Structures are given as C-alpha cells and as structure tokens.
Amino acid sequence: MQEIDFYRADSLDDLYRLLAETGGRVIAGGTDALVQMQRDAFPAAVVIDASRIADLRYIREDGDRIEIGALTTYADLLASSLVRRAAPSLIAAAETVGAPQTRARGTLGGNIANASPAGDTLPPLLALDASVTLSSARGVRILPLGEVLRGPRQTCLEPGEIIASIAFRRLPQPSGSAFIKLSNRRGMSIAVVSVAAALALDAAGRIAEGRVALGAVAPTAVRSPAAESVLAGEVPGAETFRRAARAALDDIAPIGDVRATAAYRREAAARLVVRALNGAWEHAGGRAGA
Amino acid sequence: MSKLNITVNDQPYDLDIPESRTLAQLLRYDLGLTGTKIGCEEAECGICTVLVNGVPVDSCIYPAFKAQGASITTIEGLANNGDLHALQKAFIDHGAVQCGFCTPGLIMTAKALLDNNPDPSDHEIKVALKDTYCRCTGYTSVFNAIHSAASDLRGQGPLAWKAVKTVEPLKAVGQPVAAQEAVDKVTGHARFADDYVFPGMLFGRTLRAAYPHARIVSIDTSRAEALPGVKAVLTHEDVPGENIHGLVYADWPALAADKVRYMGDPVAIVAAETADIAAEALGLIEVEYEPLPVVGDPEFARSPEAARVHEEREDGNLLKHIKVRHGDIDQGFAEADVVIEREYRTPTIEHMFMEPECAIGVPAGFDDEHPKLTVYVGSQIPYEDRRQAARVLGIPEDQLRVRGTLIGGGFGGKEDIAGQIHVAMLAQTTGKPVKMLYTRQESMLFHPKRHATIIRIKTGARRDGTLTAVQAELYGDGGAYASLSDKVMTRATTHATGPYVVPNARIDCYVMYTNNPPSGAFRGFGVTQSAFAVEQNMDLVAEAIGMDPMEFRLKNAQRVGATTATGQLLRESVGLLETIERVDGDMRAGDAPFRWGWREGSKAYGWGIACAYKNTGLGGGAPDRAVAEVEVFENSIAEVRTSSADMGQGLSAVLAQVTAEELGLPVNQVRVLLSDTDLTPDGGPTTASRQTYVSGNAARHAAVVMREALASVAAEHMSVPPDEIRFEGGKLRYNGSSIEIGEVVGWMREQGMEARSRYTYDAPATQPLGTGGDMHFAFSYATQAALVEVDLDTGAVHVLKVIAANDVGRAINPRALEGQVEGGISMGLGNCLTEQYIIEDGVPWSGLFARYKIPSIKHTPEVISHLVEHPTADGPFGAKGVGEITSINTTPAIANAIYNATGLRVFRIPVDQDALLRAIKSGAREVTATWSDVK
User: Fold this and answer.
1) B21 three-class SS
2) B697: number of CA atoms within 13 Å, CB side?
3) What fold, for B625-762?
4) Which ipTM score applies to this complex?
5) Full-model pTM
6) Where do the structural domains in chain B lie, given as residue ranges?
7) Domain carrying residue A63
8) Number of A:B CB contacts under 8 A?
9) Between the N and C ends of chain A, which has fewer C-beta atoms within 10 Å?
10) Cβ under 8 Å to A: B residues 32-61
C-alpha cells in the first residue's frame, strides 16, 4: 500500500481544523478510496477519516422534507422505514450497491463526493430533486444536486468544504418512484445504464410532476428536462412514457467504453426510462403500462 | 506504528501496528487467526469478511487502525466451546463446504444476515451474499444451509438435506458423508498453504515480463540486492539444474532466459524479510528488453508472417495437429439430406479458484522435521511437482519432498508448476523457509487457462434424423507454453462428434503457440468448447429437418453396442438415453402443453437442451495407475494413503467410504492422508475425472487385501474358516460372536506382521488416438435442459432453471456429487454468460478480480438433478468420473434456449447483451460479436 498519512476527525470542528491544517482528502466509508490505496492509485498523500463524526449520520423527517446526513450508510438507508416509504427508488439503488460489506460502510455523501457518472444513488436523488448542504468553517451553502456534480469525479466543492447532508421533499400523494440499473457488460457490476423516475399524480390522474434521471450515459448523472416536459400534465401510460423516453435521448450523451457501446446505452436507456416510469406509476397506485 | 486496542472473539489485544496493516493481515499474520482468508485484496470477492461491531466488512482493504476500540468476530469465534454454530453445522449437513476456502466468508456474511433477519427469503439471501463468491458449490447448497440454520436458530430445528434419489446405498458407499476436513473448514482451522508459518521465514516475489514477447537483453539485479532486507535475487543464471519444466512437453523455463513469451513469464525472483520489501525489490530490478512482434491469436499464429514463439521448433507455432478419421467423410455428406456448417468461438476462461497459488520452500536440514528440501503446496499433482522441481534444482528426486496442503479449489488450474520451483530455489539459496503467495492479480496473469477456440463444424443428417457425417476444424489458443494443450485439445477433437453415433467423421485440430497466457487443464478439458459447437449444430440440423431436438438426440444417442468416432466399441455403462429421458420427462411435465419458447410482455422465454459425454481417466494409451496404502491400527482406526489431491471435490470422503465399505468400518473410523511424496504412494494426477475411479479402486483393492489378511489371521487365531468371517461395524463377526478389528491388528503385530496393505491399481488399458480400439476405459454421460428469460428491452439473459441428469455409474457420496452437479452448472453458466478473460495483443485486460465476473449467488438458477447409475464393470462399486461431466453441457443448453426464446443463434460466448439487443432491434438472426469486440 502507498504511504499515506491518516488523520481521524471525531467532530465537525475537528474536521474543519484538519482540512485547514493538512489540505487532506476526506474519506468516509472508504469503500472506493481504500481499494485505490491498495493499488497505489489514491490521488492524495493525506487522508482525513470522517467516518466517526456522529453528527453527520442521521435520517430526519421535518414535515414533507426528509434530510439525510452525509455519513448515512447504504445499510442505514435500507434499514429506514421512512426512506423505504418516501423513496423506494433510493432503496432500490442502495440495494444494488456492492455487497453488505460495502453497504455497511459506504455513505450517501461519499457517493456524491465521488461524482462517478455511474454512482448508484445519484439518479434517484436527482429524480427526487434533492438538494445538498455543503458546509465549511466559513458557513453553509445549499445547492441542487445537479449543480454539485460537475463532471466525471468532479464536484463544486471548494477547499475546506464538505458535504454535510442531502435533503428532498416527499412528493404529494399519489406519487411513486423507481430505479433500474443495468450492468454486466465485460463482467463488471458497475452500471451500464441506470434510470430513476418519480411521478406525482393530480386528482384527475394526470401527471402533476414527473421526473427522470439517468446514470452512466453522460459525464455526470443527469436529469432529463426534455422527458420531464413531455410528462407534465399528461395521462400516464405506455404511450406517454415512450414519448418521454424518446425525449430523454436528447439529454444524454453516452460514450462507448469497455462496459457497453454508445448505441447500446442509448437503446437500453430509452427502454429503461419506460420501465422506470412504469415502476413509479405502479408505486403511485397506477396501472403499469405494457 | 500506531497503538491499537481491539477485541477479537472476546479476547482483548493491545498492539503496535504499522498504519498500512489491513485488518485481514492483522488477523492472519499478527494474531495467527488464519481462518479469515484473503481472496482478491480488491474488496470484490468477499471471502475475507469479518464482523466489526457486528457489521460485515471486507477485512482485506479495511485498515486495521479503523478498528480502534472495536469488537471483531471472525470465523474462529463462532463455535462455542467446540459446539458448532448453527450455520457451521448447516454448511456441513447441506453440502455447502467443498474446498472450504470461501466458507469462512460465506458463513460470516450469512451470520451478519441472520443476526438481523431471522427468516430471510431467497431474495434477501441474494442481496446479502451477492458479493461473497464461491467457485465450487454453485450456491444452491448455500441457500439450503442458510435456511436450515435460520430455522435452527429460530428454535424450529434444522432442515433435512434434500436427498437425491440413488440406488440402494450400502453401509458407507452411497451415503451422504461429510469429508474429514469439513469441521476444520467451517471453524477456520483448516490449513491452506498461506496458513503455514515457519521460524525466520522469508517472503518471495516474482518479477514478471514487461512485454508479451521480447528478447531479454540484460538483467541487472544489483540495486535490488542492495536493498536492506533482501536476502536473495535469482535469475535464470542461478538455476542449478536444467532451466526447463512442463507437464507434457518440457518447454517452459523456470526463469526466462533469452526471451519472454507472455506477460506472466518469470524473469527474476526475490526473497526478503517482508513481503513489502520483496515487492519493493522487484521495482529495483532493471531488465532491458527488445520487444518482438506479438502473436495474439491462434489463426494468425499459423500464418507465415507470424513471429515464432519458440524459435527452435520445427513446426513453427504449431503445437500439435490432432486428427480424427472415421469412415468415409465424402460418402457421409453424400448421404445427407441436410448439411449445416457453422463457426463458433469460445474465449479464454480463467479458473478463478478462490485460493491464489501459494508455495513454501523449507531448506534441507532446517529442523528435525525437514531433513530434506521440502515444498508445501496445494497442488493437483504432487509427484509431478517433485519430478519437475528436482530437474530444475539439479537434485535427485529422493532429496525433495512435496507436502500437499489443503487446496482452495483447482479445477485444473493447479496442475502446472506455480511457485514450487522458485521457493525451493530461494530456500536452498538463503537457507531459510521462503513463502511465495501470489496476489489474485498475479494468479490471473500467470496460470494456464481454458483454451480459446475457433470451431468450424459441419454436420450432415438424413431427413429421417440419422446423422451421417461430422467434419470439424478446431483452432486452439495454446498460449506461450504447452502445458496440457496436447491432451486438452485432443479431447476437444475426439469429442467433437458429441455423444452420438456418427458413422463418418473427419476432424482436424490445430493447437497453436501464441504470446497469450498458456492454456491448459480446465474442468471439461476441451470438451466444454467442442460441446458449445456440436450441440448448437445438432439443434440447427434438427430444425432444418423439422424434428424435435430431443427426439433427434434420442435417435442418434450413443448406446451399448455403438462405436465412437475414434473407433471404440461401447460395451457397457452408456446411460445417455436414460439421461435424455429423465430430463425430457421433467421438462415437459406440467399442465400446460410444452413449448420450446414463448413471450410474455417484453420478456422472451425458452428451453434449450444439450447432451455431453466425457471420458474418465487419462486414456489414449497412457498408463493410468494409482497406488494406495491402507493401514489399520489397534484402536480400529484405518488410514488410507495416496498422493491424490482433494481440491474440494470430495475425494477424501470417497476414499474413506470405499475403504470403510470393504473393511466393514464406520466411515468416521477411516482417516485419509493425501498428497505427500514421502508418506503417500503415487495416486497420479488429479485430473480427467479419474480419482474416484483410479485412486478409489486402489484404495478399495488395498482395503480388500487388508481385509483378507485380517480374516486369515483371525481365522487361524480362532480356528474358524476365513470365509465365514464377516466385517461389520468395526468388528469381525462369526457364529454370533464378534471381535474388534483392532484386536486382530494386535494379533498380526504379535506375529511380526504389519497391518498394512498396498495396492497398485492399473486401469484397463487404452489405445492411442488413431489406432482404433478403446481410447478410454469409461465415459460419463449427461443431459441438461436450461430455461432462460431474455429481456427484450436490454438483451440481458437470466437462467431460471436447469434440469440435469448425469450418468455417473454409481453415486459413492450423493451429497458431494450434488455439489459437483450444482457447482458444475454454475461454472457452465459463467462460461456462457459472465466470463471472458480478455487479452489484447498479448496483454491481459482482465487483470483484476473486478474485471472477471464469475457467477455470484444472484445467478443461481433452480437446479433439478437426476442421477443415473449405469455401473461400469471395473469402477469402484460401478462408479465413473463425475468432476467434469456436470459442467460441459450447460453452455450449449443455454445457447439453445436463447435461440428458442428469441430466434437468435449465438455463435460466440460469452453471450453479449449488447450484441443481443442490437440483433433483436435490427432483426438479425445470428449473433457473432462479444465483449472483447468493444474497445
């Protein structure tokens, strides 16, 4: 393993201080970072372990707003009946993350900070219109998740700044959400395409709000405004969902790599958008289209 | 260094550790808790799982200091004062323990699940165990074990093992017996090579080639030698004997001399005080290369412009041309109404046994226990290791001892030399024990794999469904060194007609040297590849003549009285028809009328079938011999000794069972000692599905000799006729009275006799290919049906169900046999859907566990298994080979099922969802692309 200086922060103040003093890189569960270190591929010489800061590990409900501390693990999400009810798409994503060994340590904040185009929780959080609270010794700022993700492995975090929490509002009932991940190409389990959808229906059964987000088909996980504008005000169903899926293709720019061809990603993305919308609709109490 | 206070299995520790120590290293090497295994160091395989404050973590990447103040539970902490935990018991009772290397990880992951969920569903088990891998079991038994343990822990008692139907079992033979190592494997006390430690032991590492093909201009080791802590740096110049080894052809230098021929070629070896120093030293060795053109595929290898991999060879890159000639091929095709000719491709496949190779060399005279140079290794062929190592070391074989440790899976991948020779050289040079443990990545790079093949096959049949001719041309990628290529591709060639009566055949196989990693033995031994082509062509022909594929196979199936394409008359034990009927019956059962394929929404479903046969034993004229020794002691314990290897397939139980049966002993009174060139006679290689038959016969006959000796002594002592003495329950019985077997042993000793017998078993003679006659002394037969679901939106393929029927002659240990069936199917499924060892211009892309996906518990189909027992006359209790036949026809069964579901014929594996989806969309009928086509 490469030579790396480790520090452990036991509180937020501790973390700010260590960040200022060392300029080190914060790790939480370390599920990606430690593998990189094993392969001598970790891009920093100083690491600050934040995983023991209890103040950043919580799931709270405040009216229709749900706030999740950045150090909340995938396992915490899976164990939360609150999240299970409010965001089944996020549960589905957490279930697909690695093994229990990874889910026990990997955190929601870490998945965002990692900013992988294929990060499993990012599409469901985008489709939930999540916002991220960034904090530093200087104060806090709150940004939509889409603005935090800047590119592959790039975020808008400034030096000294950390991800403190993630929040989203429950959609008004009847509503539902879903997540689908496709993997397997060249034998790897990283997403080839992932899609999350969320739907809220109005009293007439039309789509009051429909959101679609995709992973692994652009430099970051992305929302699809084109698909969402197709959905708005429409009657849910196969025809609407297929139109939304076609529109979603305008908002993605998949590349071909070892895991899939670009053409496959487009084809699969379109079909998975339909399927995710069907899943969200079903969860909202609607009938799944063909 | 930093201070660490932790509690491990309720024992507090106060330690000073380096920051870079992982929890797995701490447990294994600092605390000696070697039950926790290391499989990949990528947090991918899950077998290093331990619980930190009750939470499962991959200890291989978990920094030990992160566990400050934590309470750790390892596999050693599960049993309570010798009472096994419910999971440990259930894993044994449900046959979920084979090689045992992943067992601790599976059990610990399952424990974390059951601690939170006392009654998990199959789905919940899949979610929990999806990244804890096992290469042996196929996971079906793991599900059963977890459900059973959960029930037990809930106070409802364990579930019974789901027995498979067999002929009436005897006292020991036919019983589901646990291997003698089973308890040690579930408690973490089983010792694999890396679990051995010797005082003052050094650590070895190997510098591998920087190019797939290059001339070595110079090697400078001076900087490495100067590094503090380095005790030896050896190159080809330091080889004391002949710098060459190899199982069939000696063509593989122990250390590369003039050139390197693949990326895994060893150039230098280092021994140092720590593994880290040894690794650092590798970086200080300066090697100047002159790169040469790379020979990347077997077809190109045969062309005149290809560079020579072995310049001295007269045949260029041709390793071997193998021919089968049978009948009159032109006449055969002239008689055919339908001729189908197609080309199939199969990729290089990695064994991915869970235990990376490890060897330890202990120098001669190191201590009283090691008067001679000793190599500890988990090897499939200890006597071959000794022969090859002695040659390189320049010492007589009697001065070298190979001691087998437990083997964490082999599947053919531990037949060749790995670190055996290197550790012996380093031990002799330094005068200290030297351990060489390969990393997972090194293991994947270095060891011989399953041959990639290109198979063109032409099948002719009459409209009534009679096969008239098969012509085939095979190319095999032999890689840089011969290993077992000759034998493996011979098997691919001779089995290229499938298990059918084919009156006219002409088959040519070209095995080529390339600059890819060598290819060698891998479960199925070439037949896996040819079956993929043969069985799909069978379906194509059946379709062309409008015949049901099952009926077509029934019509042409080999049966007693048939002659194979190599001219062998099958005189007995051909259970193929029954395997077809059993699978067919199951597949067509149910209320709805049977359909081969149908659609439901965006999913397509299909059944596919395939048959297979596989030789038992070496065959082809090779003498096939095993020697076994049986000794009985005064405490009525018997010990069987032979050098054959148990790599998880269950040989030790089989040997104990046949011995127990013949001696009338309870099976737990028979111990088995394996794999030691000083203490156990030569059982021959553990390959070719031969050990149950060959070593099983040696043990059985040795036991019979022993029994007769005991009977004769007892008869004399008690004045009764020897043939009136029965051996039962550990006693000799006659006329209503009985005596302990151990007491008779005492009488023998009083008479100056040893209660020890030794038997050299020679399997029935075979003939070389091309001479007609019996090329093999037995064949196993199998039929499988696979039910698949193809997602028409994504191209993803899921195998829902596999029905298998295997003719194994006789089930000696039905529970272990089911493990072979389930594990074989899983491996076949991986071969078809998830695995490809990708090599780009001689450079392996699949260099990480994360880049080579073996089936996980998520892939586990429902398995329905039938055993067909057509005994073979000379087999022990009628048994024939089991290890390979179970895995051969899964791939073509799935491929045929995909066709029946979608109308798409797949000519390359692994089946690619990407290519499949594009074909579905474009309306194509054939898929010829696969993963490696996408850069």
Assistant:
1) coil
2) 23
3) Aldehyde Oxidoreductase; domain 4 (3.30.365)
4) 0.83
5) 0.94
6) 2-77, 625-762
7) 54-169
8) 121
9) C
10) 41-43, 46, 49, 55-58, 60-61
